[in-house]
Amino acid sequence: MWACGFRSPLRPCARRSQPRAARSCSPPRSCSYSTPRRRRHWLAGPFTGLGERTTWTGFGWLLVTLFGAWLAVLAGVRSLSPRVVIAAIVAAHVLFLLAPPLLSADIFGYVGFARLSEVHHLDPYVFGTASAPNDPIRTYLRWHDEKSAYGPLFMVFADMLVPLGIAGAVWAFKSIAFAASLATVALVWRVAEQRGHDPRLAATLVGLNPVVLAFEVGGGHNDALVVALTVAGIALVEAQRAAAGSGTFMLAAAMKITPGLLLPFAFVSHPTQRRGVVTGALVGLCLAGAVALTAFGSHAAGLLSIVPGVHGGVAAHSVPPTACPTSCRCG
Q1: Which residues make Cβ contacts (< 8 Å) with residue 245, sequence separation at least 6?
Q2: What pLDDT, on a 0 to 100 scale, did the predictor assign at position 289?
Q3: More confident residue, 103 or 188
């Protein structure tokens, strides 16, 4: 598995052909992910047997209702005490933490890539999940032969959860998303106070946002962790600690590339701290590079070719292409 400090992308045994059902990527009819034939009790969590199983349409209307309630709370949040606002945010987070994985099957992908690395000794930047066709995680995967599009720092972190088993890793990711989202709310509260804004409004805007609750916390999505690091970087830059802030941006970018886009803004908006921004970014880049080379060797660079392909597979469903009629699209 390890050779001279570098992980070797071992070749798998002869790849077996997948049955037709395994190649199908149509989503299940339920708004939470489970096995095709029956829901696993560990996956349903403590809410097993409560209420009726809804559909995507029903869940969509529930989200619309939550959005309406969120807007109403935003309109009147200044009349609420900070203690009430904080209690409501924490309570909502707990409810979505205890729910089964919602909206996205990415959480199973995290486990699948980590098991590919730690159980099957295959580099997730070289081999797709189909290289381990008999792994039990394949029952839950949304994409059946993808390579990892996540940064090396996140993959090393995910590898550490493999000893917990599939169930333990899934709920660990949900718990991490829960804690990271609340940390983001706390950072937003602090930055709003420092800038003279009402922290109740800022915290409610983030902490009771239905997308954050359902997708990040409910789905156990790694975006919650990446956003927490990104907001921490912003808070550090705002506190005149540009080197630490830009370094944090780079560490977040080693999980997902997007936070690195904030570096030019930090450089331009804080002219007296530009040296610190550059220094911190270089230190963060060296740390992330050391992790990548130690864990995956030169194969970590394959991430740069994987990300555009993954983006192309989902960008067609983002807001601009969906909202814009076909006639107004270029090309």
Answers
A1: 232, 233, 234, 235, 236, 237, 238, 239, 266, 277, 280
A2: 82
A3: 188
